[in-house]
Amino acid sequence: MDDPKRQQPTYSRERLETASTQVPQEPAKAAESSETEQAVQFSEPLQESHLASVLEIAGNLRNISLAGVTGFFKRTWRVWATMAAVVFALIACVNVAGRVVEWARDARERRHELAVATVTPDRLIARCGEAAQDATKEVFPIVMRTMSYQASGNQKLVFAFSRTDEEQSDWVFLSMNDASGTGNFDTADAKIAALPCLDSRK
């Protein structure tokens, strides 16, 4: 039979081995806690420096007086006056340019409307030359006259005029169409765009 005293050291050795395997975990926890403490200690000086700079700026702002601000504007009034004059001049230039463009557009529209409103067969010949076709037809008591012109892009434009059968009556401009009748010449600008020679003082 074995002696019970010999079995006891084996039991104590196992306890020592299990104890030795559990010991290294404690230093790891200690290392983690020391790293957190170092990070906190490192961030504290940064926060203190930021706070100090904010307090310094606030102190400088508190030291600024009304006399200092007035003195600054007195020293730099020429710069501010020049900047204000430049801004005012730019606004005035934009306003004037817009008015000039609008006036030129209105003047062109009025000129086009007058040129179309005053067109007659004789003025059409004076402005655009002889017509490619010129036909007069009398439907009592009205005389109809159609005149054809060749426009750009081989487009044929037909002008229609009418007057009464009396000799002294004036021609009235009725319409302007292309040969197919699909052209849209409702406005004076459209008519002059199709046949630019209409825009003339003749």
Can you walk through the features of this model?
The structure is a single chain. Among the domains are: 28-57; 110-198, Double Stranded RNA Binding Domain, CATH 3.30.160. Mean pLDDT is 76; it is low at 7-24 and 26-31. The protein has helices spanning 4-22, 25-63, 66-75, 77-117, 121-128, 188-194; strands at residues 133-139, 142-151, 155-164, 172-178. It is rod-shaped and about 105 Å long. The N and C termini lie far apart (147 Å). It has a four-stranded antiparallel sheet, with no helix packed on it. It has 202 residues and is of the alpha+beta class. The longest helix is centred in the middle third of the chain and has 41 residues, at 77-117. β1 and β2 (142-151) form a beta hairpin. It is built from six helices and four strands. Helix content is 61%, strand content 17%.
Question: Topology, please?
Answer:
Elements: H1 4-22, H2 25-63, H3 66-75, H4 77-117, H5 121-128, E1 133-139, E2 142-151, E3 155-164, E4 172-178, H6 188-194
Antiparallel strand pairs: 1-2, 2-3, 3-4
